[in-house]
Amino acid sequence: MEKPYVIGIDMGGTNTVFGIVDARGTVVAKSAIKTSAHPEDINLYIEDIATGLDKLINEVGGKERIKGIGVGAPNGNYYTGNIEFAPNLPWKGVIPFAKLLSDKMNIPTALTNDANAAAVGEMTYGAARGMKNFIMITLGTGVGSGIVINGDVVYGHDGFAGELGHTISVRQNGRICGCGRTGCLEAYASATGVARTAREILESTDKQSLLRNLPAESITSKDVYDAAVQGDEVAKEIFEFTGRLLGEKFADFIAFSAPEAIIMFGGLTKAGDLLMEPVKRHMEENVLSIWKNKVKVLFSELKEADAAVLGASALAWEL
Amino acid sequence: MEKPYVIGIDMGGTNTVFGIVDARGTVVAKSAIKTSAHPEDINLYIEDIATGLDKLINEVGGKERIKGIGVGAPNGNYYTGNIEFAPNLPWKGVIPFAKLLSDKMNIPTALTNDANAAAVGEMTYGAARGMKNFIMITLGTGVGSGIVINGDVVYGHDGFAGELGHTISVRQNGRICGCGRTGCLEAYASATGVARTAREILESTDKQSLLRNLPAESITSKDVYDAAVQGDEVAKEIFEFTGRLLGEKFADFIAFSAPEAIIMFGGLTKAGDLLMEPVKRHMEENVLSIWKNKVKVLFSELKEADAAVLGASALAWEL
């Protein structure tokens, strides 16, 4: 019998969102639960997901119509199906999540981290349709990446490849990153990195700025965007700085895998041209001449509210 | 009929070396010609190769025993079989070398650049046997790289992936590189880069050193090695500096493709532990914690005199 649907599960630190998706990337049914309602027992969390999924599955005609389940999870390892030492989840150590869920649901289940899932989603339904070689960069609270070569996500020797947010962007006096090292791209080009840049410029200069009307500690990347749209020079300088670091690193990433495109995804991309223009300019200024004006820089084409579920679901078509 | 041999051709700016290789990586016959004897006509160069090859082929029992020809060439593009705008060859523009040679010889021919050929050679006959994910770094006049993921060399969208020598190692006041940009790894970690480091330290300090007995302009990486072996502090400082830049970049490369090993090849590796020790130390200091003490750093196991021919020949087993 035909199996026209897949299930995507996006596991975040706060909420777990799941949906049923068709081959064109339409989310036909969707629901969510709290991730940390049962910090003491992962099996109760699995029960919650199963209850929610069963309801959605009935709406689309039963389990026979579901090809598989894809999960995007923090520190998810595609090879093992395990979640390994995820700092923002309540269950510690190594969790055999894909196995637990597929045993419970009797549906084949694949799992990877959220940035890799986003790459597969973009290739299946979004801006990377038809591309065999591209790099997905997710610009959210952190900076993640999913690298696709010859149509396959790069998982590497151990399943954890593609941590481009933790390549070093600023070698001298670099900012401390959440990973404990200094100078990582993530400490600059994430939403939190943009807010840190704002505070640094406001503290170290006396330039006039709309951002000075806000308590420094509460400034967000959204505030920087709002100020830039109103022509604020400091806010524009912040995007120029962020775009420069991203563009310089993109030039290095191209030297690695010679992708057709680099695709940016996540909250920071709402800045649109304020981000895109300096990223492209600095990438072109820094890239080796054989790749000048050859590599596209694009924004994700997935609707943000559905993107994580779509990305996770796309994994299941390959099961 | 059984075809137990492949042919490897290593095209350098000065000499073109070719050999017949068996499945265990033994070079059973070998010869060489001048690369630039016929700068006016590539077809005369092809004639020279054909004459040389025919002689070797007769020695091993005729064309029926040859599975294919592999060529390692500057700016060689695996996808097209073309040599494209190679600065150190006498023929300009785009040369359809694989087609010209296979038409002439009536033997299937594959072509790639020398660093990619070295990676395939190492996987077939050397330190990377059995590995599916590793990075080859060639440390010669320049710094080249061949990246293997899931058992395949990464060629990227256009055939030119893997230019890790042209990722930026020193962002502020970086040295001018042969590619016209500044701060490339190649400007530091190549044999010529090591010699530049020597001259910089000798000029900018008054530290005592055996290297001061040589005319500054003539100092080579070999001289630095010889001085280091004798305990010269400046020479040791040069290897420490070179090893630091390489180790820092290796940490970034690991974040990309999570390889099982990084394998160093080329003239600079003769320095042995003088290079290996600081490379490993700085790599471990800089790598993301999930990869600490997990990624091997190795030297090539191919005999240097045969390595380029072996690497090129290995391509032909896949034909």
**Which class best fits the helix and strand makeup of chain A?**
alpha/beta
Instruction: Specify the overall morphology of chain A.
Output: globular
**Beta content of chain A:** 15-25%
Tell me the quaternary state: homodimer
Mean pLDDT of chain A: 95
What's the CATH H-level homologous superfamily of the largest domain in chain A? ATPase, nucleotide binding domain
How many independent structural domains of chain A? 2
Q: Secondary-structure element order of chain A, as H and E?
A: EEEHEEEHEHEEEHHHHEHEH
The CATH class designation of the largest domain in chain A is Alpha Beta
Q: Biggest interface, which chains?
A: A-B, 43 and 43 residues
In terms of per-residue confidence, which ranges of chain A show pLDDT below 50 for 5 or more consecutive residues? none
Gap from first CA to last CA of chain A: 16 Å
CATH topology of the largest domain in chain A: Nucleotidyltransferase, domain 5
Roughly how many Å is the radius of gyration of chain A?
20 Å
Number of DSSP-assigned strands of chain A: 12
Portion of residues in helices of chain A?
25-40%
Please tell me the CATH architecture of the largest domain in chain A by its name: 2-Layer Sandwich
Q: Give a quick account of the main beta sheet of chain A: strands, pairing sense, barrel closure.
A: 5 strands, mixed
Question: What's the helix count of chain A?
Answer: 9
Please list the strands of the largest sheet of chain A in the order they lie side by side. Answer: 3-2-1-4-7
